[in-house]
Amino acid sequence: MAEGFTSVETCLEKHIPVQELKEVKRILYGRELETLSFSEEALNVANKYNFELKGFKITAGQEHLTPPRIVRIGVIQNSIVEDTSAPVDEQRNALHQRISTLTEGAYLCGVNILCYQEAWNMPFAFCTREKQPWCEFAEDVKFGPTSLLCQELAKKYNMYIVSPILERDEVHGDTLWNTAAVFSNRGCYLGKSRKNHIPRVGDFNESTYYMEGDTGHTVFSTQYGRIAINICYGRHHPQNWMMYGVNGAEIVFNPSATVGGLSEPMWGIEARNAAIANSYFTCAINRVGTETFPNEFTSADGKPAHKDFGHFYGSSYVAAPDGSRTPGLSRNRDGLLVTEVDLNLCRQVKDRWGFRMTQRLDMYASSLSEAVKPDYIPSVVRDEIHLLDHPYLHEAVEHLPSALKKSENWLTTKPLTEEEHQSPPLIS
């Protein structure tokens, strides 16, 4: 059922009357967004190569002094093409060809900045913990075959391209990294952003291959605005999103690979919440389909040995700083989502809601600098009226660290009498 379920939007449109549907969508997605019209050529390419094509427009208020800053963002979700048992070059070449076709579609739709899904040029094989053949997909971030292709496509179609790959860093001991490379519309390599947070949950055995990234929260200032890349699992960490905003990002891409049995209830919330909290646009991108591997694997979670990760549910979408969002792409089809945005909305939302003004970074910086210390004592006020009469409390206190004993007055307070125990404390 999960794989066959197309999308929440399709289900709503099928079962809810038109007038009620309009109100349901307003509640779920914020304001109603205008759909984009595409050329017949673009529609024909989507039809010929069997991928979903959707487009929406997110506007900002008209200003007297500042003209609109219009950008067309494209995100691509796709399934693998060849079987995972095929030779590595055949798998990679097939994906190169598939993505080149979808990138042409993005060009025909006027996309300025395009982002692919996490590790797009390979199966998401990190569940297996096998080093061969999967490590063979790793390549140099500037001169590897995938990056050379992206440079060619970026120059040909006059668009910026964000390409998340498995990177091999030959300079630093051939280490592997989960990395997104950024290429300008001139076909030049601008830089990279590595995955800051690595999962250790379910079949996501990625730390077998690579560890947490070391590039921080890089923002790329482009012809079409300031962009950043928060790869996959980083979306679960609000501080990660926050730092891209602190560094001035206006669009943050979240290229991902995640499955329905694990994260789907969170999917529509996290990137959208980040857009609101940080006053920028977010683009949540997920791959599609079920990838089956030659050998069974387990992940120490009590489940029987299996050969697939589960269903990658697609559902890619774009969220705006005012809380609105586009409908998602399908849960089971390759797709291209094009969203035309006005970056003035970022500043307008900051002016209206004042989230950045009221953010209190100084307070959190001070608190966190204390919290990371080994001898940190959490600031907790305990209700001693209820704690002191616990039969094991006084024995437990004897084993507490001396620093904590000094911070409390448990040892100097006598246990409650029967009368005190029955009378609740007065609250003034």
Give a description of the structure:
This protein is an alpha/beta fold and about 425 residues long. It has 2 domains: about 30-365, 4-Layer Sandwich (Nitrilase/N-carbamoyl-D-aminoacid amidohydrolase); about 375-420, no CATH class. The protein contains 13 helices and 15 strands. The protein has helices at about 10-15, 20-30, 40-50, 90-110, 145-155, 240-245, 260-280, 345-355, 360-370, 385, 395, 400-405, 420; strands at about 35, 50-60, 70-75, 115, 160-170, 175-185, 190-195, 220, 225-230, 250-255, 280-285, 290-295, 305-315, 315-320, 335-340. Helix 3 packs antiparallel against helix 4 and helix 4 (about 90-110) runs parallel beside helix 5 (about 145-155). The model has no long low-confidence stretch (mean pLDDT about 90).
List keywords for this structure.
2 domains; Nitrilase/N-carbamoyl-D-aminoacid amidohydrolase; globular; single chain; alpha/beta; eight-stranded mixed sheet
